[in-house]
Write a structure and sequence with these properties.
The structure is a homotetramer. Chain A is α/β, with parallel strands linked by helices. Chain A folds into two domains: 4-117, NAD(P)-binding Rossmann-like Domain (Rossmann fold), CATH 3.40.50.720; 126-279 and 310-334, Dihydrodipicolinate Reductase, domain 2. In chain A, 40% of the residues lie in helices and 25% in strands. Chain A has helices spanning 13-23, 38-48, 57-62, 75-87, 102-115, 129-139, 161-165, 170-185, 202-206, 276-279, 281-296, 305-324, 330-334; strands at residues 4-9, 28-34, 52-54, 68-71, 91-94, 119-121, 146-154, 189-197, 212-219, 224-230, 238-245, 248-252, 260-264, 267-271, 328-329. Chain A has a seven-stranded mixed beta sheet. In chain A, strand 2, helix 2 (38-48) and strand 3 form a beta-alpha-beta unit. The longest helix of chain A is centred in the last third of the chain and has 20 residues, at 305-324. Chains in contact: A-B, A-C, A-D, B-C, B-D, C-D. At the A-D interface, helix 1, helix 6, strand 12 and strand 13 of A face helix 1, helix 6, strand 12 and strand 13 of D.
Chain lengths: 339, 339, 339, 339
């Protein structure tokens, strides 16, 4: 049985996770790991059981044994690496987002389209067993017509200011995962209205961002949605999604991290997920396995280019809505955007 | 030990509940039940173990052995009965709302204030053990600065159109309970923005109301809030409240109605509360017991006039916001309103 | 509508609870409260809204307006009061147990039978909504053939030694509630094997009792059962019952006392029931309401004499099994016992 | 960084799982897979990304690049392969049990001891995050003195009769996992009393086995334990463990498989784990990773020989107790057994 030759581009914290995951995916072999930092590169190569390493991601892309790339480099480099890989005819898995602006995103996705290369974007929640079960139940008509959607996403603590400065802001960096869930579970969004505020750290406000926000989503099918985000959650990573409709309600929650309950004087205690990486450890493996399988079998991977673009549009509209204090339709943002 | 002489005004569905509750409150005796419908009146008198009945609520108010009234009549009559009771020097417990408009509400509450009579409004959730524990934890600083508030309130099915026509609309009739929780748990609201839609029954739209809504609350302390309502929940009465802050999160949820789990092929099942009356059965008893105790001990009952008014203001602002499609400050609604 | 004339015999802690409950039961009126202690008697009469009081329970029984008695006196007096009430033709509700030995129990129940008077024994768990739902599910065949039963019963702290000395021991005083559940949910028991030990307080061992025990139940239908008891549970009152069968499993658990979850650094917390009185507050009301209703309607109340006797037999067999270190068949205990 | 050369012996269902897991463990490389069945062997080699395959496990053991073996062959071959590997100086991970009788077990473990080779037995629950947290809490004194222990283990359906005939019976094949938990969490057992019955399939009784059992454990520290097992659970794999002590209670439960709750008419539903392989998927990876790490770092792996022996002794005693209808002390079984 064939194994797909994969290059891992980027060996940061997330790259190390993907390295470990790739080693355990039978139909993949990690041909190369690329990262300019030697120690990180070697560490990731060890974890991935990779055959060789490159300092330059471009060289890994050109490696003739590399059939697919997994892009986990800093966000600013995603678009160009996607384009380069697409032009070289390699299948592409890229962490989100393609880019922080619409133009660069569309250019990269156009290159993908032109090259006809398989493309998958890293919205890992779609591969979480909980969300997959929700999707399946919705397909079976479990709730009938959907009337309200709600997602909460809260990180345990804000990232460093240096990161935040180039992150694109809360809506593009963080809420985009919830926007993608909205599209995954409910469908396309017509307009949004976002309210942002600074409750956690005034320096986040000083760089023109918010750390606490509520975004209303008005879906094309008439359903209402609300997304709550915060850069701080003292108890750990907080994620909860609800779909409410005419025949029922689905809730995907973060149950205690371990099924261990401690009863002590006055009550009981359980633990909680610390961060997205422990909550979604299995989803990260599953999304890469699905990507490898799709490429090997000549099927289209999912979520694909339209999902990368669709969730970006909501995030851009939310950012604009927050800044202008008004409801913003997605078509305003997209103007001539098309795939 | 003394027992407070109480008259129950109104013997509808809710009146019957209050009748049973009053019978079981030791420091109260039900002197009279009043309702123009003989059968309902007699039934409630039996449940309340009442001493006598009146067809006319006014006569019950004037009964010299009656020291306090519990008003459970149709909404349109609340204000006048409150005024009459206050003028007669009787303590007043009234189901919410005092009235559907600000003027009538203020007039009734002014009469209460003038008479110096004890007054309690029937926001029963404040007497639910779950919400009381939340309030206590907040007082202890469990979550620190509050950043986000969220309440869901969904009824199993819409009431008859006839009822809806005079209900004041979803925000005044239904969401007002969630608005009161917002005030109880977080504090005063500065402005609101509400989005209503019709998803359940087009006839509700035809009478100028909505059956599905999201209301954003902007609190004076800077916190954000969101309230989700629906007139239909296939699984039963849906209520869930969350308070999120710098040091933690509180959730008051509707757990299964009975602690009985049925594991069967493929998974497990639990039951659910059907309606507010089973979810809050104990709270209804507790609020009446608290009212009786406060009056007997000469203390001020709570929630009082300012709570009746405060939650009404939010509901009026939400209604206006939904109609005008813009954020509405409470002071716009209140104009010269004062207590 | 008629109200049943009730006398409450006994005004201790449990008597006060029953007093409050009786006041709130519409088809009952509390004619009298009897207790030799004046203050307790007056307090209970206030709570029950009773018409008069007696120092002597016998006088209350003889009161011509008293049609039914609720016996909440010390255990040692149950049997004689049951007999007296039965002979006086009054309906009888008695707290468990009838007596701590088989002879006195049979004598009292024989008097009941002879008088043809309605009789209900205070196994309140049978009126808990959770257990009732379990019973209903079993009736519907939810688990098919029952294979294993398990009950846990743990009290927060041991009662005073003075109480324990006359309590009949852990199996008769405490495990008997779990034995009754076994009969209520599964059916009759053929034999038992009990293992007792002293883990909580050596003085309990010195008076010939145990504070920690496991009892195996072998049901007539071939199912196996296990009952775990302890006189101490640091976290509060611990009760959990499981019925496992060919098609599924039922669990009746003690969920958190309030549906309030506190998420804080490192995890989440909930509260817990403190004692049987808060866990079963509604069941105590429900069992009395059912008794009153049955008597008023001329129906046989349940659980009745055979349940009082059946659970006692298991408790006696368990005590003997523990003492003799061997499996004991119920028929050994019952010898000639019959109803 | 070095990678440990591993041979996977056995490519059945469990072998395939271990193959996938080993591929994803960075400090291991799978040198060889051995299994007499060619297709299974090739499949496992693909999953493990193994370098070569052998039909004969002995050849894999002798492969000079193989430093450690992972034994997942049929139970009857475990002991001889352990001995062979130990004699060849290879580290050994073996699925439980070493053997079904004491003599073969002791002989194999003696060979391990003599060779001084690292040895780990496959009690994977010890590597489950839930049980590890329980162990940690116990180490911190969370419950103080332990008084009662309870474990439930139920498989969804009985294995084929052909398997059962050589399985050693319910206590050795199935309950042994719960007995190991008892030792892991509480400590050594002094005596047992077991009750077995046939409820699921009479043919299981005909081959001299039981399908439903309760085993009492009497710990050396005075605590009581109870283990409930069944070969059938309609709802899936059922596992729950409770540790009760003077200061609290720990419960390790099987929460729903996915954190997805479906609220529909009348209540709510969740899914359930199907089998031990999905419940313990992460534990299987974790135990192998721990084994590889221990061997690489020259540390003693755990659970080791004394755990393999200790849990076997309980299972043998339970089997004897069930057959003889009496309590059996472990020392009766062990007689001269020693490590």
């Amino acid at each position: 049985m064939k194994r797909l030759g994969v290059a891992l581009l980027g060996a940061g914290r997330m790259g190390q996770e993907h390295a470990k995951a790739l080693a355990g995916i039978p139909p993949a072999r990690v041909v190369a790991v690329a990262d300019p930092r030697e120690e990180a590169r070697e560490r990731a190569a060890y974890l991935a059981k990779a055959e060789r390493t490159y300092a330059d991601a471009r060289e890994a892309i050109e490696d003739p044994e590399v059939e697919a790339v997994v892009i986990v480099t800093p966000t600013a480099t995603h678009a160009e690496l996607i384009e380069a890989a697409a032009r070289a005819g390699k299948a592409v898995f890229s962490e989100k987002p393609v880019a922080l602006d619409l133009e660069a995103t569309e250019r990269a996705l156009a290159a993908v389209k032109e090259a006809g290369t398989p493309f998958q974007i890293g919205f890992q929640r779609r591969y979480d067993a909980g969300y997959r079960r929700a999707r399946r139940l919705l397909d079976e008509g479990a709730v009938g017509q959907v009337d309200q959607f709600r997602a909460v996403g809260r990180d345990p603590a804000p990232p460093p200011l240096a990161y935040l400065r180039t992150s694109g802001g809360l809506f593009l960096d963080m809420a985009i995962h919830d926007f993608d869930l909205a599209r995954f579970l409910i469908g396309e969004v017509e307009s949004v209205q976002a309210y942002g505020t600074v409750r956690v750290d005034p320096r986040i406000g000083e760089i023109g961002d918010v750390d606490t926000a509520i975004t209303l989503l008005f879906f094309q099918n008439g359903a209402q949605g609300v997304v709550e985000n915060s850069r701080r959650a003292a108890y750990g990573y907080d994620i909860r999604t609800e779909v409410f409709g005419e025949r029922g309600k689905l809730v995907v929650d973060a149950v205690p991290k371990t099924p261990t309950w401690y009863y002590r004087e006055g009550g009981l205690e359980a633990d909680h997920y610390h961060f997205f990486m422990d909550r979604f450890a299995q989803a990260y493996r599953a999304e890469l396995a699905a990507f490898v399988e799709a490429v090997n079998q000549g099927k289209e991977p999912t979520p694909g280019p339209e999902d990368a673009l669709g969730s970006l549009l909501i995030a851009l509209a939310a950012t604009q809505s927050w800044k202008e204090g008004r409801r913003v339709a997605l078509k305003e943002v997209r103007n001539g955007a098309s795939l």
